[in-house]
Amino acid sequence: MSQRTGRHFLQIPGPSPVPERVLRAMDMPVIDHRGPEFAKLGKEVLEGCRAVFQTQGPVVIYPSSGTGAWEATIVNTLNSGDKVLMFETGHFASLWRQMAARWGIETEFVATDWRRGADPSIVEAKLAEDRSHSIKAVMVVHNETSTGVTSRIAEIRQAIDRAGHPALLLVDSISGLGSADLRHDEWGVDVTVSCSQKGLMLPPGLGFTAISAKALAASKANSLPRSYWDWSEMLKPNSNGFFPYTPATNLLYGLREAVAMLLEEGLPEVFARHQRLAAATRAAVQGWGLEVLCEEPSEYSPVLTAVLMPDGKGADAFRQVVLDNFDMSLGAGLSKLADKVFRIGHLGETNELTLMGALSGVEMGLGAAGVRHQRGGVLAAMSSLRSGRDD
Ligand SMILES: *Cc1c(COP(=O)(O)O)cnc(C)c1O
Predict the structure, then answer these.
(1) pTM of whole model > 0.85?
(2) What topology is assigned to 20-263 in CATH?
(3) Domain 9-16+266-390 top-level CATH class
(4) CB contact at 8 A, 138 and 123
């Protein structure tokens, strides 16, 4: 491999590139996590998270990956033998379901073709049928990172309410938070699950659960044994800015900075930027004569775009050509989609020019790998960005 110059293009949909401001904020001595200086940091990040999750309620921060926060959600709110409604929107929904099943939870798993999100009308119909209220929760992945499809969480809440059903709404917004609008309180989400290394622009290592009053009450009534993930153990010391065990101190410095960046830009502006970059990416895909995996325009992901390879060409060989020639990492197809799609991440720190660099790398890569395509995707993306600015 030749000598690399400049920065690596990390265009996978998480981990996303960490801004220099965040890296510098983490470059700090580790402090006493039981001391007064820590309490101030703890209070600031716990408060800052509320703003990002758009909630007045508590957000619990674990030293964990997103998978840990998935488990925290299950063990606090559900018990073995409970029934839940889930949607097979892709790889991550399938993994969350597998985890629930391992906890002895009975999962009704509504199939999709991995090209659309969870259907609110199916939520309504299934809950309306469930007169005995045996379904304890509806569990949905907000932004399905394996497919580039975003489920309509506000509409799913409305569907639950129309059915007059008490099920909890548990949402994986691991790759949505900080990139796609997610209003924990306004949309009546009971638990929003997230982690650090996607829209929050941090290194991996933090998991989050935002908790509604109803979910907190469910956790208090739940008799499933739990310890490390127990919300009540966390919330007691959190009220003074502390944690029950050693927190990931330096990631919390980074979190404070990342939250400040999101709030300085303004959440509506952050979401609009992601939408603009996503629209430009889809314009490029169309310009190349290729196909976006997501088939439902109201569910296009602002976070990433999954692109189908033409003519049965291998996506992994193409991604390798891009990596070797242009030092750019694109996302791989996962499980069912392995080798069939590549994924372009356009989240977090990405701006118009980094996106244009990434799309240029894809277009040159298609040429270098001998993949059938039309030229002009990059030009189409530029036009899309220009018209987005004129709005
Ligand atoms: C990344 C991701 C996960 C898994 O998070 P980890 O930090 O790898 O444990 C789960 N769900 C979605 C939607 C994701 O994008």
Answers:
(1) yes
(2) Aspartate Aminotransferase; domain 2 (3.40.640)
(3) alpha beta
(4) yes
